[in-house]
Amino acid sequence: MRKIGRLDRPDNSGSAKMFDNPVLEKMSRTHISIPIAMFLGIGTLSLYFAITITEIPYSVGLGVSLIGLLAFTLVEYVMHRYFFHMEPDSKLKDKLQYSVHGVHHDYPKDKDRLAMPPFISAFYAFVFYVVFTLLMNDYALYFLPGFLVGYSLYLGVHYTVHAYQPPKNFLKILWVNHAIHHYKDPDVAFGVSSPLWDYILGTMPKRDK
């Protein structure tokens, strides 16, 4: 898998212009708090309906929510590894990959492009709800909040590791792994919010002895 950045930018600063149309260019950017607030709000609403209109026991609902959170960490890993870093073996794939992720590798300090624009985030949440409902009926109302909390944590962690210096505690591994992924080896450390699946699937960065 090749490195997906294109530009020779030692400091990785600046911002890419993705659209000539100023409206589309503006819509391609968002403050990280907007999608996080949207996901947490939608998750809270889903949890309210789960509690008020279903007969699912609370203990079972809590377990389903935790499964939803765990499921997101796997989706995050799989999407990052196999979609965001897919082999660009055609012009369409190359353009798609660069638009959804390659631009981030070229400009990792561009804080306005660390999350999908609000209208895309809202569409994602709607698609998740429909798919989960088809798969698990009323249990989806408990599963969706856990999944969206996972998504919110991912967005928050991703923003934080790019915007702030690493802490001097056990969370430092998130900063270190993501820095390795960006600046040393893009074929490892696909988990952003958690290294769980990197441990399980063998993509943890190798430590220098």
Q: What's the layout of helices and strands?
A:
Layout: H1 22-27, H2 33-53, H3 58-84, H4 91-106, H5 118-136, H6 140-163, H7 172-183, H8 196-201
Helix pairs in contact: 2-5, 2-6, 3-6, 5-6
Rounded to the nearest angstrom, the radius of gyration is 18 Å
Mean of residue pLDDT values: 83
Distance between the termini: 25 Å
- DSSP summary, beta strand count: 0
Per DSSP, the total helix count is 8
Structure, explained:
This protein is mainly α. The chain has 8 helices and no strands. The model is unreliable at 5-10 (pLDDT under 50).
Outline of this structure?
This protein is mainly α and 209 residues long.
Notable traits:
209 residues, mainly alpha, 8 helices, 0% strand, globular
